[in-house]
Design goal:
By secondary structure, the chain is of the alpha/beta class. The chain has eleven helices and seven strands. It folds into three domains: 109 residues, no CATH class; 73 residues, no CATH class; 88 residues. α8 packs antiparallel against α9 and α9 crosses α11. The longest helix is centred in the middle third of the chain and has 35 residues.
């Protein structure tokens, strides 16, 4: 049985409701395919939810069993099999939809892209080069974590795991994957250039594309050149204005994925769609454009 994003969220919300009813705070860190689905929109389904609980383990165990019976899911739909790959120094991010409160509830954490990249590298198996998930996941996370080459990839893994724990197969696997990433990015660079060149024409296009074109033009004029634009800010402003004008989330996502220089790769497009979901949960007014002080993974036009 496979769990899609809606099913994972349904199960987590049931845990949240039970924790609130019991007046307990449950801190849960989610990894693997579930994290890729929830935080990055990079997976449509996963077999189970890899998670580690910090606080109230007995409560969580009982809640997971109850929910499995209610949903007809396997008893281990949420399990801690990932514990062996958890780093001593983690980099986790609290999901806005699960922050609990004074009365209890679920606090849900997912790995930052760079940490999940390192975890996936450590978990990589030889069979993954023949159709497994890990290679595709690492390829996508390389974009979101802004990993440029083999050296930076291995340095990132070593930032979370001692060199003594990194087996040779991981180093060889990372080298092969990053060669594939480099070849893919070379092809994508031409598409980025084409999109940048087409930006002036978008203002004469229809609806969402025109909004994006105008916002992009304002941002480029302020920043000085396309390479210094905060494309996440441009996307957020386009999302806000287009939603206000009655455009659907699908129309907005399709237009941004088709025209934004920062949404060429599948991973960047998934990150953009996730940003639209976050915006709907917590609307943000468009702000002034400025040269970016810090890159946001997943929205780098130079890729």
């Amino acid at each position: 049985m496979m769990l899609d994003k809606a099913a994972i969220l349904r199960g987590l919300r049931k845990i949240d409701a039970r924790a609130k009813a019991a007046g307990m705070v449950v801190d849960l860190s989610v990894y693997g395919g579930a994290a890729l689905a929830l935080a990055f929109n990079l997976r449509e389904t996963t077999r189970d939810v890899d998670a580690v609980v910090r606080g109230a383990p007995d409560f969580l165990r009982a809640a997971v069993a109850d929910i499995a019976r209610e949903e007809g899911w396997p008893p281990a739909w949420l399990n801690d099999g990932v514990k062996g790959f958890v780093a001593e120094r983690e980099k986790m991010e609290l999901m806005e939809a699960f922050q609990s409160g004074a009365g209890g509830g679920l606090r849900l954490y997912t790995p930052a892209p760079e940490y999940l990249f390192a975890m996936k590298c450590m978990a990589m198996r030889a069979m993954d080069f023949e159709g497994g998930h890990d290679v595709a996941d690492i390829d996508a996370l390389a974009d979101l974590a802004d990993v440029r080459d083999v050296e930076s990839a291995l340095s990132l893994v070593e930032a979370f795991y001692p060199a003594s724990r990194i087996p040779p197969k991981v180093r060889f696997g990372v080298e092969e994957i990053m060669e594939r990433v480099a070849a893919r990015r070379e092809l994508e660079q031409a598409e980025r250039a084409r999109r940048r060149a087409a930006l002036p024409d978008l203002q004469r296009a229809g609806e969402v594309a025109a909004v994006f074109g105008r916002r992009a033009d304002e941002a480029i004029r302020t920043a000085g050149r396309a390479g210094e634009v905060d494309w996440l800010a441009v996307a957020r402003a386009t999302i806000a204005e287009s939603l206000k004008a009655g455009r659907t989330t699908q129309e907005i996502a399709d237009a941004l994925c088709r025209h934004s220089p920062a949404a060429v790769s599948p991973a960047h497009q998934a990150a953009l769609r996730a940003e639209i979901e976050r915006h709907l949960a917590r609307p943000q007014p468009p702000g002034a454009f400025q040269a970016r002080p810090k890159r946001r993974p997943g929205f780098d036009p130079m890729g």
